[in-house]
Amino acid sequence: MTDVFDQAQARDLLNLQQALEVQQAIAANTPRLVARGFCYNPLCEEDFDPADNGRLFCGPSCAEIHQRYSQHR
After folding, report:
1. Cα separation of 51 and 13, whole Å?
2. 19-60: per-residue pLDDT in tens?
3. What is the dihedral of CA 49, 50, 52, 55, to 10 degrees?
4. Is the pLDDT of residue 1 over 90?
5. Most buried of the four, 15, 36, 41, 43, by CB within 10 Å?
6. Angstrom distance (rounded) from CA 31 to CA 72
7. Predicted pLDDT at 70
8. How far apart are CA 19 and CA 6, in angstroms?
9. What letter does residue 47 receive in the DSSP assignment?
10. Are 39 and 48 in contact (CB under 8 A)?
11. pLDDT above 90 for 9
């Protein structure tokens, strides 16, 4: 027989599972940047070395500028 604590724990687990499913759905529907050989910062767009696969930004400052720029669009 379950007591109040067991029921609360089961409900907490269910809430956690539902929250994780929602976050996974959001992540699956969020567009992702793809490496394109130059910086995504619209104020920079510096070319990268072709051997630098997967690079999106010159550094943290360019990534931050891109994030701020993207939020205002």
Report:
1. 45
2. 999 999 999 998 888 888 899 998 898 998 877 778 899 999
3. 90
4. no
5. 41
6. 16
7. 83
8. 20
9. B
10. yes
11. yes
